[in-house]
Structure formats: structure tokens, C-alpha cells
TrEMBL record:
Reactions catalysed: Hydrolysis of DNA containing ring-opened 7-methylguanine residues, releasing 2,6-diamino-4-hydroxy-5-(N-methyl)formamidopyrimidine; 2'-deoxyribonucleotide-(2'-deoxyribose 5'-phosphate)-2'-deoxyribonucleotide-DNA = a 3'-end 2'-deoxyribonucleotide-(2,3-dehydro-2,3-deoxyribose 5'-phosphate)-DNA + a 5'-end 5'-phospho-2'-deoxyribonucleoside-DNA + H(+)
FPG-type domain: residues covered: 247-283
SUPFAM superfamilies, sorted: Glucocorticoid receptor-like (DNA-binding domain), N-terminal domain of MutM-like DNA repair proteins, S13-like H2TH domain
Record organism: Meinhardsimonia xiamenensis
Cofactors that this protein relies on: Zn(2+)
Designated name of the protein: Formamidopyrimidine-DNA glycosylase
Cofactor remark: Binds 1 zinc ion per subunit.
DNA sequence: CTTCAGACCTGGGCGC
DNA sequence: TGCGCCCAGGTCTGAA
């Protein structure tokens, strides 16, 4: 799925057509995605003005003037595509609805936002604005990796004594929220830390490097519009570009890009997911 | 409490 | 072309 940079790219694409806009019509083309949609979702959205479009971890949050917040998760393959009258934007048009177009939202200004999700691991929900701490999907999330709450000191505290590999720990959204398989691999390579290393056995200095690497790779990916392997699209339908800047992800057998390193990228499977790394420079 | 396999879905790529 | 198999950006759930 979209990890943090892809979700942020989608949020930024939606801001010009959705923030401040009034929802004129909502079409639900099925009962739900990963879970059933909340009761009367279409009616609770219709006629509402979107006050603010936020992001928390991999969730997009739209605060409405009804004091409810619409939560959107893109799952593995979710896309939000803009068409119709969308000033200043490239309009992504479809002659006929795709079989995976599940939710269609029209604004009074004439923009259309289509939630397309082939695998249907995505989700939508409504909850009272400000009640993030009570929402089962949001309450246990760790700090934002690009925010002030995320630091080497925080990591040090949370990783102390843990024997799980650092790869698995960084995928745990309670430790830090927003990383997924790609960016964990990339950040660990940049920090020259092996994905196999026990989380509790990383020095403070190297944790500082890890925090910097995570911030850098996420920032660069956001600037590139995210990474498009197969499913991710910007709201314009355009692909992201960061996949061209991967140093290890999907590059098994390629020479390690670390200057002075003569290693070769390897793929190992950890808890069912591929970890790409350089055994020579990542320790 | 931690850790893990299994589950939810579709589609693309590959070998035969 | 077709078929079977493997893999994929997530993460919840229940069992051990």
C-alpha cells in the first residue's frame, strides 16, 4: 500500500478540491471495503463542508462541519482520483466506471473524487471530531516520524531489551506510525543497520542515524510524489517517481550503492515480508 | 505480554 | 493462449 509518502501525496492532491468544499453527492457502489461502511455514511457526508484535510500515519482524516471526521485508509491498492471540474488540475477521466471504483464523491463546485481499490483492503469510517484517542484504529499509533515526538531517545526507550529484528519493530505502527516495507528497507540501508539486527542492540549513535535516515527518505519520497510500483497513483492519475530512487528495495543482485561498498543487495524474508539489504555495509 | 501464521482480496508476471 | 503459482506498498485477528 501506500505508505506515509504516498498517503501524504494523495492528501495534498485532494486539498485543492476538497478542503473548504461542500459535498453534494456520495455514491457507495458497495456496502464496504475491509469493513462495512458506517451506518448512513452517504447521508452523513452529503451537504457537509470539509473544514480540514489532515493525515495521521497512513490515514487521511477529513474534518467536517458536522463535528464528524471522515477516516480513509487506502489499504494496499487504494487510489483517490480527481475528475470533473477541478480548477488548475489535470483531470483524470474515465468513460465508464471501473469495476473497482467503490465510492464516488461529488462536490458542489463540480469536482469528482473516486475511491478505487482493487484489493479492497482499504477502509472508511466516521467518528466524532477530536476523538482520535478513542478510535480503535488511531488510539495506539506511535509518533509521526516527521514530527517532534519521534526521536532517538523515544526509539531507545521503546526498543530497550527487545530481541525482535529492527525490521519488524519499525513496521509496528505503535512504535512509529507511517512506515511500511519499502521505506523501512530504504531507511535501514541509509543508516547502515541490518534489518536482522535485534532492536534492543543498536547503539544510541546509530539510532540517531536511523531517525535521520527515516526522516530523509520520507521527505524525499513525498517530494517525488511517492513511489509507484503498481497501484499507487497521485490524485491526477499520474505515477509517483520515488521508485527510481530506491537504493535497495526490489534490487536483489544489484551492486550496493553505498560509496566504497562492494557488496551486493540481497533479499531475505522476515515475518513473511521481503527485506532488501546489503550484508556488507549494513550491520 | 509477545510473536506468528492466517486471513482478507485482486491482479500482474513468470514458467511451462 | 491458458493455467498454476508466486508475489505485492497493510494490518487485523486469533492462537500458541
Amino acid at each position: 500500500m501506500p505508505e506515509l509518502p504516498e498517503v501524504e501525496t494523495v492528501r495534498r492532491g485532494l486539498v485543492p478540491v476538497l478542503e473548504g468544499a461542500v459535498i453534494a453527492r456520495v455514491e457507495l457502489r458497495r456496502e464496504g471495503l475491509r469493513w462495512p461502511f458506517p451506518p448512513d455514511m452517504a447521508a452523513r457526508l452529503t451537504g457537509r463542508r470539509v473544514r480540514l484535510l489532515r493525515r495521521r500515519a497512513k490515514y487521511i482524516l477529513a474534518d467536517l462541519d458536522s463535528e464528524e471526521t471522515l477516516l480513509i485508509h487506502l489499504g494496499m491498492s487504494g487510489r483517490m482520483l480527481i475528475s470533473g471540474r477541478a480548477p488548475g488540475l489535470f483531470a483524470h477521466e474515465r468513460a465508464t466506471p471501473d469495476r473497482h471504483d467503490h465510492v464516488v464523491i461529488d462536490t458542489e463546485a463540480g469536482a469528482r473524487i473516486t475511491f478505487n481499490d482493487a484489493r479492497r483492503f482499504g477502509a472508511m469510517d466516521l467518528f466524532p471530531t477530536g476523538q482520535e484517542a478513542a478510535h480503535r484504529l488511531l488510539r495506539d499509533l506511535g509518533p509521526e516520524p516527521l514530527g517532534n515526538g519521534f526521536s532517538a531517545a523515544w526509539l531507545r526507550e521503546r526498543l530497550a531489551g527487545r530481541r525482535m529484528p529492527i525490521k519488524a519493530v519499525l513496521l509496528d505502527q505503535r512504535i512509529v506510525a507511517g512506515l511500511g516495507n519499502i521505506y523501512v528497507c530504504e531507511a535501514l540501508h541509509r543508516a547502515q543497520i541490518s534489518p536482522l539486527r535485534a532492536a534492543g542492540r543498536i547503539s544510541a549513535v546509530r539510532l540517531e542515524r536511523l531517525v535521520s535516515a527515516i526522516r530523509e527518505v520520507l521527505s524525499e519520497a513525498i517530494a517525488a510524489g511517492g513511489s509507484s510500483l503498481r497501484d499507487h497513483r497521485q490524485t491526477s492519475g499520474e505515477m509517483g517517481y520515488f521508485q527510481h530512487d530506491f537504493r535497495v528495495y526490489g534490487r536483489e543482485g544489484a551492486p550496493c550503492p553505498t560509496p566504497g561498498c562492494s557488496g551486493m543487495i540481497r533479499r531475505v524474508v522476515q515475518s513473511g515480508r521481503s527485506s532488501f539489504h546489503c550484508p556488507a555495509c549494513q550491520r
